[in-house]
Amino acid sequence: MRNIRLNIAYDGTKYCGWQIQPRDITIQEVIEKALSKIHKKKVDLIGSGRTDSGVHADKQVANFVTDIDSIPANRFRAAINSLLPLDIRVLSSREVPLEFHSRFNAFRRTYKYYIKLADVGHPRYRDFCYLVRRPLNLNLLNDLARELVGEHDFTTFAAAGDQAPTKIRTIYSATFYPEGEFIVFKICGNAFLQRMVRSLTGTLLDFSFKGKTPEDLRFILLAKDRSLVGPTAPARGLFLNNVEYPED
Amino acid sequence: MRNIRLNIAYDGTKYCGWQIQPRDITIQEVIEKALSKIHKKKVDLIGSGRTDSGVHADKQVANFVTDIDSIPANRFRAAINSLLPLDIRVLSSREVPLEFHSRFNAFRRTYKYYIKLADVGHPRYRDFCYLVRRPLNLNLLNDLARELVGEHDFTTFAAAGDQAPTKIRTIYSATFYPEGEFIVFKICGNAFLQRMVRSLTGTLLDFSFKGKTPEDLRFILLAKDRSLVGPTAPARGLFLNNVEYPED
């Protein structure tokens, strides 16, 4: 028995998120089907965490246990890719200790949210970002984002009906910066609530457009009141950028 | 009367090329409609040349004559963009001499063709490139491409039924190089036949996969026989990158 770790990238546009759903097609399901074809039996794939419907990944991490001896660990990449649609790609495969668990061992997650001015630059990549029509105030956005760093109860930014036992999360960094033709909001934390990054992004943009202050943001964070947030930014701009493990 | 020059970028995916067609929707048509709305009468837009169905542009150049005095030349950009779909963007607008003609005055055109290995890197931008499944031999591709430089009769690479009075074109440069996650084939010439860049790209890739030599390419160029070329590369990877004028 070997435990195989996969680093995976995907264009989530057509998928109902990572995690298997009763009705809709998901990324986990598509990869499990490829694994099951290789193994000629059902294989479970453990992911580092869910990504929401329409959200992408630069690097999602998952693992599965295999009883196939004939495929070297690093060759699972090509074997799985040959059975996957082109919007999901295994970037690498390697053997990890049997104890390795993609979700429990992950200690840090990073997301990148891509924003673009609707009227500037080339329109080609607009389906992978959020087009905004007003100029961005990067200084103010970064002043607002700084308020998120540290350990906070993020109830204000949780989705309605979120079942997480605690809404306390630790944010290590949160910054806006230009990257090519985009403005990126990069946020790194121990873990995130469902839709939390999109809610944060939408609120920071909304607050910056309205000229609100870091104090205003601190206030709504402490208020634990979902009615105070801005509109949720669309899924298409969000990428799970990295998941980190002690073994990396 | 003022002559206004536009630099335009577009995602050509949904359009039947630049030039107005009786039935299908084209980029020229969409921009002319915006101009006609601003002028409250029909306005003709002159482009530097056609791009084929599905082909994109980083910089297409076009001009139109206006009798509106109230809009400064550089404000036409925003006025037109406000009436365009998001896959067509005017990058700049400025006044040029009345003699300026986007097509007749253009002395050099540059195209970029984006290629990507299907199994490497992020799948997100795969609709804007040609995915190939075999590793590329950049040295051989550049040796082959070098054969294109100079003045040649490109009958071999013309589309069936091409009506151009002469198939002689001058190529100033033609190179393959890495750009981010892509391999780009960049070709610069005085003008190009319809589908010529895609036919050249497809043939160079095909020849490189088959280990053919620069002599083989020279042979088919001289043969003026369309049956000798490789498959035409798909439109989605092709960008009109630049059009140059003496005034630039």
From TrEMBL, chains A, B:
It is an enzyme of class 5 (isomerase). Substrate binds at Y111. Keywords: Isomerase, tRNA processing. The active site is at D52. Residues 9-105, 145-246 form the Pseudouridine synthase I TruA alpha/beta domain. GO terms for biological process: tRNA pseudouridine synthesis. It comes from the Bacteria. The keyword Iron does not apply. GO terms for molecular function: RNA binding; tRNA pseudouridine(38-40) synthase activity. It catalyses: uridine(38/39/40) in tRNA = pseudouridine(38/39/40) in tRNA. Its EC number is 5.4.99.12. Homodimer. HAMAP family: TruA. Formation of pseudouridine at positions 38, 39 and 40 in the anticodon stem and loop of transfer RNAs. Belongs to the tRNA pseudouridine synthase TruA family. This is tRNA pseudouridine synthase A.
